Structures are given as C-alpha cells and as structure tokens.
Amino acid sequence: MSQPEPSAAPKSSPEEPWPVRVVSQKVGAWIAKLGWVWVDGQVAQISRRPGSTVVFLTLRDPSADLSLTVTAHRDVLDAGAPGLAEGARVTLHAKPEFYPARGSLSLRADEIRQVGLGELLARLERLKKLLAAEGLFARERKRRLPFLPQRIGLITGRASAAERDVLMNTRRRWPSVDFRVINVPVQGPTAVPQILDALKVLDNDESVDVIVIARGGGSVEDLLPFSDEALCRAVFGARTPVVSAIGHETDAPLLDYVADVRASTPTDAAKRLVPDLGEETQLIDVARRRLERAVLTLVERESHRIESWRSRPSLARPELMVDQRAAEVTALRDRAVRSLDHRLRRADDELRHTVARLRALSPAATLQRGYAIVQRADGHVVRAASEVKVDDVLRLRLAEGELRAAVQKEEKQ
C-alpha cells in the first residue's frame, strides 16, 4: 500500500499530529521548489572516496560560519575544476536536496567552476566601491592611535614571522609594552570566523588600547580573508582603534582601507604602535638641556635686574634719601617759623599803629587836652547853642569825671 501524498495529509493539531515521515516529506517538497541555483562559496573540505564516483565537498560562506555539503560526480569536478584544493573559491550549479532518512540537507551539483584570479579581483573591486560608497574608508572617521598604549591586542598566525616581527620590534622600541596575543588561521576557510571572534574578544577587553591584525605576504588568494566584507564591517564597527599590517608594501587588502592605521609591513606596525625609547630619551635630554638653559638665562637676567636695582642710590644708600627728606623738612620748618615770625611782627606793628591811631582819634584823648562833651539829659550831644533852652540841665563829661550845669539866659551888657 502506497503512502499518502504530503499534500493529502490533514492539518496538524495536538489531537492529530503529523508523523515524522509526513513532516520530512513536506520539508523535502518545499526544498525541492527552490530548483536549480548558482551558489558561490569557499571549499572547506574535499572528500574523494576510493572506488566511488561521487565527490563530497564542504562549501562554506567566507563571511559567515555557515556551510553546506555538496555532492558531485567525479567527472563534473574534473571537468570544471580539476585542480580544486581546499580554500579555493568556486561557483557551482546545484539543486538542494533533503534526505529524509538522515534529516540532512545537501546540494547536488552538475557544474563546478573554480573562480579565477581575474574574477576574484573583479569581485574585490566591486566590494571596494560598495564599502567606499558607504563611508567605511572615510578619513574623518579614522581614530588616532594612543601615544603609548598600555596593552596591545595582536591577531596573527601561530608562531608566524608576522607575530615575531611585531613582538620583537615593538619590544625593542619600548621594552615594557604589554601584549595580548590571539593566534588564528590567517588563510583558508576557517580564517575569517576565527579572526572575527578574536577581534570581538579584544574589542571587549577594556585593557586593550589598540588592536593589530597582522600576517606576512602571500598571493592574492592567500590574502582573501583580509578583504572579506564581514571582517571589514567588523573592523569599522570596532570600539578600539585597529591597525592593519598585512603582507608587504605592494599588498593592499580591503582591510587596509577600513583600518584606522595601515602599516606597510608587520615591522612598520611596530614603529606606529609605540615610540622609540632611545629617541624619546634623547628628546627628553634635549628638552631638559633647553629647559636648564632657559632657567639659567632667566635667573641671570633677573640677577642683573636685581643688581641694577641694588646699585640705585635709593637702595645703595637708603639713609641718603632719609637725610634729604629730613633736610627738606627742616628747611620747610625753618621757612615756616620765619614766615610766622614775620607775619606776627608785621601784625604787631599794624596793631600798635592801629592802637595809636585809635588813641589819637579817641574822644578820651580829646578830653585829656581839656575839652568836654556836652550832653542833654537824654544823652544827645550838643553841638550848637540852639539845641538847648534856658534852664535845661546839661551833662558835662570831662577827662576825669563829669559836671552838671544849667542853661541860663544870656545877660546883655
């Protein structure tokens, strides 16, 4: 009895769940709808079994930790990519297939093309333009490296010449520098995911001030991981400044354009990471000598100024200024005394003259000469005979005392 078609199965429910075979059949049916597709990826593993005409490939995405199994006839592989090796980039025409017995998904390829160098370079150029248009290469976003980092993170191959060059030359320039080294594959299918993981670890380490990604020279294919889009975007988004030290002067992976600093070689990276202790010591010595000369010049100039002040009379003989002021005070006091005496004598003379004049003009002086002042009873001074009448009592003031007199009628003779 044949099994029912998956489409004929009723809708699943807690009361009527689908059997595993039905679910498997439906998954296979949905996958089969994708049809034939062209797939691009990197060969992580090739398995050729003796006596078998089927070749098994593990195809991974260079920018993600994802892979698929690919099956192909040996003739298909030999016709399209006879010298295919692990790590190569390929483009293949395949159809996804789901194997219900194992619950696995694979691709069945009927055409495999190994991507040549020209195609790789064309892809890199397109990616370079895309990243540049998005601003990942912009100079204004690049950060300056710290003058003297406390700790340097290094991502490089294990026991590689690049690791040795960076560590040796950096410590030669600044012996006390501290490193945190993470060794990763620097080529091949597993390079990019492990580099991304190492970058994340170092970027999250608060003690790391700068990160260096380094490897020696190699072919374009060997340096492909350092032009990976995912790696470029991860470096662009890193919190910590990143130095790219890949290959030689002529090598220019896309990482060089995204990194904050591009070093032409791992040795050049050491020169950019830390200052040279000998040069800095020499600069300090030069600066110290300049400072000493400046201080001595300043002290000498101020000494001359103080000596000039000390040679002035006011400081050389300060009592002279006091004596001069004392003499001036004495002279002013003498002048004041003389002026006051002169004014007092002149005022005394004027007073005596005024007294003499007053005495000369005083009625008392007139009375002394025998004159008298005649006054009526009301005190009016009589100046003419017509001012009195007969029998008026008059008061006669003499120089000494006074008299009373009465006016008599003048007798005619």
TrEMBL record:
GO terms for molecular function: exodeoxyribonuclease VII activity. It is found in: Cytoplasm. It catalyses: Exonucleolytic cleavage in either 5'- to 3'- or 3'- to 5'-direction to yield nucleoside 5'-phosphates. Its EC number is 3.1.11.6. Keywords: Cytoplasm, Exonuclease, Hydrolase, Nuclease. Heterooligomer composed of large and small subunits. This is Exodeoxyribonuclease 7 large subunit. The lineage of its organism: Bacteria, Bacillati, Actinomycetota, Actinomycetes, Micromonosporales. The gene is xseA.
